[in-house]
C-alpha cells in the first residue's frame, strides 16, 4: 500500500465517521423528540392559561348566583319589616346580578369547551410522545443489536479468511525452523566440547619428551 492510498483511506474513514455523526438515526430521533417536547411545553402553558380563565369565569358565576340568593333574602326581610323601598333596592341588585349571569354564562360555556378540547389534545400529544419515546428506545436497541451483529459478522469473516490463517501458519513455521536451526547449532557446539574433553592424550609425544630430557642431562 503506497502513501497516497493510505492517505485516501484515512481521509475516507474520517469522512464516513463525520457523515455518520451527522446522519445518526439515534440523534435524529432524539432531536425530533426534543422538538415535540418543546411544543408540548408551549401547549401546556396555553392549556393552563385557558383553564385558569375558565375557572375565573366559573367563580364569577358562582359568586353572582350567591348574590342573587342573598338579595332575594334581603328583599324578603325588608318586606317583613314593611320597608318596600329597601325591598325594591334589594330586588334591583338581584336583577343586576341575574343580568350579569346571563351575560357571563355563554362566555363561561365557550371557555369551558375550549379548555376541555385543549386538555384532551394536550393529553393525546403527551401519549404520542410517550409512545414515541418507547418506540425510539426499541429502535435504538434494534440498531445497536444490528451494529453488534454486523461487527460480529465482520469478525467471523476475518476469522474465516484463509489468507490470514495461511500467513499466520507460515509465520509459525518460519519461527519453528529458526528455533530448530539454533537448537541444532547449539547441540553441535556442545558435542564438540565434550568430545575434546574426553579425547586420549598422545603417548608417543610424552615418551619423546622424556627421552629428550634424559639426553640433556647426560650432555650438559
Helix-and-strand structural type:
mainly alpha
Mean pLDDT: 76
The percentage of residues in β strands lies in: under 5%
Share in helix = over 70%
The main sheet comes to:
none
Count of spatially separate domains = 2
How many E-type strands?
0
Low-confidence stretches: 2-8
| SS field, number of helical segments | 5
- The arrangement of helices and strands along the chain is HHHHH
Q: Specify Rg, calculated over alpha carbons.
A: 54 Å
Shape, principal axes of CA atoms: rod-shaped
Question: N-to-C terminal Cα separation, in Å?
Answer: 87 Å
Keywords: Coiled coil
Family: Belongs to the PspA/Vipp/IM30 family.
InterPro entries: PspA_VIPP1
Coiled coil: 26-81, 108-149
Description of the molecule:
This is PspA/IM30 family. InterPro entries: PspA_VIPP1. Belongs to the PspA/Vipp/IM30 family. Residues 26-81, 108-149 form a coiled coil. This protein has 220 residues and is mainly α. The chain folds into 2 domains: 3-160; 173-218. The protein is built from 5 helices and no strands. It has helices at 3-22, 25-80, 84-159, 162-197, 203-218. α2 (25-80) packs antiparallel against α3 (84-159). The longest helix has 76 residues, at 84-159. The two termini are 87 Å apart. Residues 2-8 have low confidence and may be disordered.
Amino acid at each position: 500500500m503506497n502513501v497516497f492510498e493510505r492517505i485516501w483511506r484515512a481521509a475516507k474513514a474520517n469522512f464516513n465517521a463525520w457523515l455518520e455523526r451527522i446522519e445518526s438515526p439515534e440523534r435524529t430521533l432524539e432531536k425530533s423528540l426534543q422538538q415535540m417536547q418543546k411544543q408540548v411545553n408551549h401547549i401546556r402553558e396555553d392549556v393552563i392559561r385557558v383553564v385558569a380563565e375558565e375557572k375565573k369565569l366559573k367563580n364569577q358565576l358562582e359568586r353572582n348566583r350567591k348574590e342573587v340568593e342573598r338579595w332575594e333574602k334581603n328583599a324578603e326581610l325588608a318586606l317583613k319589616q314593611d320597608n318596600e323601598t329597601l325591598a325594591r333596592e334589594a330586588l334591583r341588585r338581584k336583577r343586576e346580578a341575574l343580568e350579569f349571569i346571563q351575560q357571563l354564562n355563554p362566555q363561561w360555556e365557550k371557555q369551558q369547551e375550549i379548555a376541555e378540547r385543549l386538555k384532551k389534545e394536550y393529553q393525546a400529544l403527551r401519549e404520542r410522545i410517550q409512545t414515541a419515546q418507547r418506540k425510539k428506545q426499541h429502535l435504538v436497541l434494534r440498531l445497536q443489536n444490528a451494529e453488534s451483529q454486523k461487527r460480529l459478522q465482520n469478525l467471523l469473516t476475518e476469522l474465516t479468511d484463509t489468507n490470514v490463517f495461511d500467513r499466520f501458519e507460515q509465520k509459525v513455521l518460519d519461527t519453528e525452523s529458526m528455533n530448530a536451526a539454533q537448537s541444532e547449532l547449539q547441540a553441535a557446539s556442545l558435542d564438540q566440547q565434550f568430545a575434546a574433553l574426553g579425547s586420549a592424550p598422545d603417548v608417543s609425544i610424552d615418551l619423546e619428551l622424556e627421552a629428550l630430557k634424559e639426553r640433556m642431562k647426560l650432555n650438559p
